[in-house]
């Protein structure tokens, strides 16, 4: 249940009021099983529990969790191309003629129809939640592409969901470079042991990556003096969580430290109660972190139109 990455979007108070119908809207967009001739399907699955009668949202205070699901048939292009090659070769040998592009396309379509029903189906899940009090969409992924796919699913379900990417008034790259260069970090924030420096002058400029590194070391300072800037920086917040923050404000390698995990109850009545406790703790911890993001990077919440 604890997220391992954060891709963030924001929405206005008016949008928050509309989210009271989220559970009802998602109910019409459950994940359908992948049909024998479908490459994949998308929809929503229960974040807690299973079955057609399980709820598609789970709320704690002002935060409502949902889970986007997918089913994809695993049919590698190499398998199709190999079967196509053998078919074309057999026609060439048996009939002594060359197979044209239109016929190759038809044969490939026939092969897909033949092979798809036998292909394995891979399931995927991506958790997220909306915080209606503070106007956040929080998705457990470090991929902007995957995040946009999920956001589009929510938009489709609701009819409209004007959540927008973060618009920092303070440049994250400039701020993080200053933190690393001066050691003057905001209260409660400490350097981790990972960073990525780049020469911002060109898109193909030099890149330096350090892992398990001393970020106060002379090597890092030398790169900064040469004009390199921070594109990713490992940080520790309040000795409660560690993560790598990108200049796009995507959080990766998120890890809740032992002091947080120890606050979970030792035992639960069932798995649902355990997930409920984890979600409550997760949202409480992230509310504090995202509040600091607002402060550090001057992240405005969209206003009502």
TrEMBL record:
GO biological process assignments: DNA recombination; regulation of DNA recombination
Keywords, alphabetical: Cytoplasm, DNA recombination
InterPro entries, alphabetized: RdgC
GO cellular component, as recorded: bacterial nucleoid; cytoplasm
Record carries keyword Cytoplasm: yes
GO molecular function: double-stranded DNA binding
Superkingdom of origin organism: Bacteria
Compartments it resides in: Cytoplasm, Nucleoid
This protein's record includes keyword Amino-acid biosynthesis: no
Function description: May be involved in recombination.
HAMAP family linked: RdgC
Family: Belongs to the RdgC family.
Protein name: Recombination-associated protein RdgC
Organism: Dyella marensis
């Amino acid at each position: 249940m604890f997220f391992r990455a954060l891709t963030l979007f924001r929405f206005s108070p008016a949008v928050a009021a509309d989210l009271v119908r989220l559970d009802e809207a998602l109910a019409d967009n459950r994940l359908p099983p992948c049909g024998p001739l479908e490459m994949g399907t998308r929809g929503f699955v229960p974040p807690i529990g299973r079955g057609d009668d399980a709820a598609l949202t789970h709320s704690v205070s002002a935060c409502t969790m949902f889970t986007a699901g997918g089913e994809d048939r695993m049919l590698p292009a190499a398998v199709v191309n190999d079967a196509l090659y053998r078919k074309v070769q057999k026609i060439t040998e048996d009939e002594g003629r060359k197979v044209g592009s239109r016929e190759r396309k038809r044969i490939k379509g026939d092969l897909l129809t033949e092979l798809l029903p036998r292909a394995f189906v891979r399931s995927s899940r991506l958790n997220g939640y909306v915080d209606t009090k503070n106007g956040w969409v929080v998705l457990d992924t470090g991929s902007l592409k995957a995040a946009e796919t999920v956001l589009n699913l929510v938009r489709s379900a609701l009819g409209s969901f004007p959540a927008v990417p973060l618009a920092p008034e303070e440049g994250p790259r400039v701020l993080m470079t200053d933190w690393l260069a001066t050691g003057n970090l905001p209260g409660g924030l400490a350097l981790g042991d990972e960073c990525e420096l780049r020469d911002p002058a060109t898109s193909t400029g030099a890149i330096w990556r350090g892992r398990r590194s001393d970020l106060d070391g002379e090597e890092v300072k030398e790169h900064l003096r040469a004009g390199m800037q921070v594109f990713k920086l490992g940080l520790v917040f309040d000795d409660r969580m560690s993560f790598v923050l990108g200049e796009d404000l995507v959080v990766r390698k998120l890890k809740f430290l032992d002091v947080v995990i120890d606050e979970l109850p030792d035992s639960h009545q069932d798995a649902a109660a355990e997930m409920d406790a984890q979600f409550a703790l997760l949202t409480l911890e992230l509310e504090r972190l995202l509040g600091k993001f607002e402060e550090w990077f001057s992240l405005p919440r969209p206003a009502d139109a």
